[in-house]
Write a structure and sequence with these properties.
Helices cover 41% and strands 25% of the residues. The protein contains 19 helices and 20 strands.
Length: 575
Amino acid sequence: MATIQKKPSRGRDYWAIVESRRINGKPRPVVLEHLGTAENLLKRLQEGAGPHKVKSYSHGLVAYLLNLIESLDLVQIINRHVPNKQIRDGFTVGGSIVLASMGRICQPTSKRNWYKGWAKRTSLSYLLRMSLAKIDSQHFWDQMDALPSETIPAIEEEIVDTLYEHGLLSMDTLLYDTSNFFTYIASTNERCTLAKRGKNKQRRIDLRQFGLLLLVSRQDQLPIYHRTYQGNLNDKTVFKEHFARFSDRLKRLSGSLEDITVVLDQGNNSKKMLKEVDQTIYFVGALSVHQHRHLVERANLNLQEILIGNKSVPCYKERTTIWGSDLTAVVYISEKLRDGQIRGLEQGLSKLCSELDQLKEAIKMPTQKGKKRTEAGIQKKIDSLISSCVPKGIVEWELTFLQEDAFELQYWIDYDHLEELKKWRFGRRILITNRHHWSTEEIIKAYWGQANIEYVFKNMKNPFHMAWRPQYHWTDQKIEVHGFICLVAFLLVMVAFKHARENAGFSRSPHTLLEKLSEIRLATLIDAPTQKSKGRYRATYQLEEMDPDVKELADAMGIAELPMKSKIPFSVYKS
């Protein structure tokens, strides 16, 4: 049984918990715990047995990202291409760029709000053993200004080389596409040439935008080549300008283009470029059904059901000459596309009928004021309404003169032509390739991979992780560096997602992965000052208890084994 005993020492009484045990057959008192003086014991009892304070920080995601950045040597790769070896608040240019990328991954925010809005609530400062409180918008502005935009392609190429050397990059099939990002740059700002008005899927034609070209691997969507470009350029122009550049990069990277296939979207095709592409690299592309109706007509008479994955797809394949190139063409029916076209046609017909009915009632009576109607003017308006809503030939119409400035309009739907469109035209896709030995299944699967790069752009427009917005930059150089920061962020996420799939069997989205890793928190236990600690607070760190699914993910990805101090030389330029 344990007892509390008093032990005098140097004129003071100290207390201890003692238990009597037999040692070598003789009873001896064994001290289990020293309690100190009565005053200290009373203070400990009043404060409780736990720590004086407890603070916790989001830890798992930043710790894993730092480990990944270290393994890929990203900071030093960037620093090697920085002409002005400046240091701001203890960080090199490469270090600041990487820190900005981490912020885009975890919580996209303005550079001004980087510390207070995100970094302050994470274990990043503890892992770096560096203060982050002074990092503000001016810090990032100065560091971004020190990275010339013309050095970004060389940095990107070295990063891609590193991915290839680490065995992270599969080069067999690559996906190419472009997208636009609108901005709030003022129309009167003449310092920016990248941001121009143009069409975008967000329908913000009232805002200036810039474009992003991406070439990624099909297997893991790792970026291999990117460029920002003027927002008013069409896809064919951009592709023509950059095709030779990214082809050269692929050749330098793999030594040959024989084993690489690039998947292109329909908007990048032109007669002139198709010949150059065909003579340079293996590719899979798409053609407009309206421009190659004879091919579709042959396919309609010879469709065969082929199992692609777990779906039975009507397909037709032939080797033919298209725009002077010897190509293999595959025509197949996409039920998803067909259903969408039918829905769009029905909506267009409903809208058209409503507008034609309004016009019909309006032109029955002569105008009372203003310019008089003319038959030619009404015909032009009817043709414009029909062409904007439905394909040609579905709606027929007749205009009858009643009296000056008054007409009778009759219109009707050609249901036979409508059914013919649904049966013989809708849902058709035409794919082309110079991989003549590929099967129909391989060609279609390669093109279906194009959905992966569309998902990439969707992720980049997600406001919660990896977002390109908000971006508060209005010069070309800053926009390009900001784009590079976002690209590094996307690269890190996709490498982490690859590791999670391979090591943890993770089957959910990259965004879910980031949320789960962010839930892993580091607790700081701060003990009250004691006589032994000479009045200083003492802090200990440990991971908080996790939910079972998060713990399983953390164990599989080795979060608990990650060092509590980063070895990345954030504040040193290495030669």
